[in-house]
Amino acid sequence: KLLLFGLIYLGSTVASTRYSLSSHKRIANGVSSPDGEYPFVTSYQHVINGHFCACVILTNVWLLTAAHCVIFARQYALSEVQIVAGITNLISSSTSRQVRKVLRQYSHPRFPGGTKPNDIGLVRVSYPFDPSASINSIRLPEYAQEFYGVVEIVGWGYRRSTYPAITPDLQMAQTSIISTNQCNSIVSQYATVDNSQICVVGYRLGNETTCNGDSGGPLIAYLQDVPHCVGIMSWNLSPCGMRGTPSVAAKVSWYTPWISCRIYFDATNPTAVC
């Protein structure tokens, strides 16, 4: 992977730091989530190689994820790809665990790859999930709805770049949304963020970020204590877990028309352009 050199400004201090761009992310400097806290978070897996991304349950057959996760999954036959729901531990044999094969996968047609906008996708499973205390859907925001303040990131895997091993237990962390201008002032040497994306930085310690393997997972805001999926995690600067560096998500409220269109035409015209 190409490593990029850059300057990051933390307050009045200029720190010279080596960065690269990272997708397929997992939570750095998070904590283990309680069982049942995030019943809408699932693992997008290869049947042999295991977890590679996360997905978010929208209905009993539809899940939201990142476009680059769908593109990654397409290297495998559909029979080799599955969604695992109802777990917080990836190796758990819990009775709440449900596994479904993938029937169809859609990536946004205007996602060109890398750190560009439109990194959002949909997955339809072959058989409905059975709702339970451990498996449930999450609400989406209204079209063009904006969010501010503290939001949560959730995912499995690497806690830091220097320890590249999957974390079996689902991790979570609180983060704060920052402005597009503020985000670009940090990442502009490597990428450009626009208004269809959301940037967050660590809230409690400042070093909570996504890391390798969290892509496709939710950025969660609570409206009257009801969780809403306001973002789908896309990429971050690497090494992950660096204080003051942002994690970047696709802004879901920009894509609700595409989501609705894609689901509507799935049964009658899966090749329809949305």
Automatic annotation (TrEMBL):
The superkingdom listed in its UniProt entry is Eukaryota
* Keyword Zinc recorded: no
InterPro entries linked: Peptidase_S1_PA, Peptidase_S1_PA_chymotrypsin, Peptidase_S1A, Trypsin_dom, TRYPSIN_HIS, TRYPSIN_SER
* UniProt keyword terms in alphabetical order: Disulfide bond, Hydrolase, Protease, Serine protease
| Annotated ranges, domain Peptidase S1 | 27-264
CDD domains reported for this sequence? Tryp_SPc
Query: A single GO molecular function, which one?
Result: serine-type endopeptidase activity
**SUPFAM superfamilies from the entry?**
Trypsin-like serine proteases (SSF50494)
Q: What is this protein called?
A: Peptidase S1 domain-containing protein
Source species: Photinus pyralis (Common eastern firefly)
